[in-house]
Fold this sequence. Notes:
Blueprint: H1 16-23, E1 28-29, E2 31-36, E3 42-47, E4 51-54, E5 59-65, H2 71-76, E6 79-84, H3 90-95, E7 109-111, E8 117-119, E9 124-136, E10 139-151, E11 158-160, E12 163-164
Antiparallel strand pairs: 1-11, 2-3, 2-6, 4-5, 5-10, 6-9, 7-8, 9-10, 11-12
Bound molecules: flavin mononucleotide.
Amino acid sequence: MNEPNKNFVNKDTDDASSLKKSLSMFSTGITVVTTVDENKNPIGMTVNSFASVSLSPALVLWSIDKKQPSYDTFLKSDGYVVNILTKKQENLCSLFSSPIEDKFKNLDWELSDDGHPIIKNTLAWFNCIKWKDYDGGDHQILVGEVKSYYYIEDEPLLYWNGKIT
Length: 165
Ligand SMILES: Cc1cc2nc3c(=O)[nH]c(=O)nc-3n(C[C@H](O)[C@H](O)[C@H](O)COP(=O)(O)O)c2cc1C
């Protein structure tokens, strides 16, 4: 007889930590999503919920926790840049996942044509204007239309099982 699988979880008796652990078995890249606040100051946060959606029109999505301090700013913004990190940019992953006041102080960056911060020397970036937002439970799903983009050939920073490699 087969041994019962100790990692089997019924969602009805689940706690969020085992769901998070199971979801972390899906490997992702790591991005920093940036925009500007009402005073035109740059803001940004580390995000791994990024995904491509559509080629025509060119649409991408990411989701933001409704409890994030920058939630209102991102929801009010007319767009953002999704900056994809290279393997050498683990420092940016840490910087943009910490509650630091001015994350851009020592960074090399510029504004896109639509006025959103592009971080220099990333693997790729997608400059988006807002397409639509959708309710996603404790997150909000933000779909953006890609207006310009860029990439280089390099190694990506990856996230799997809570580890950054
Ligand atoms: C690898 C990684 C991926 C993350 N992905 C997301 C995400 O997709 N959505 C989200 O709301 N927070 C995500 N976070 C958490 C935010 O980056 C973190 O809470 C950050 O401090 C938010 O910035 P803020 O404090 O300036 O709002 C992620 C953190 C890490 C380390």
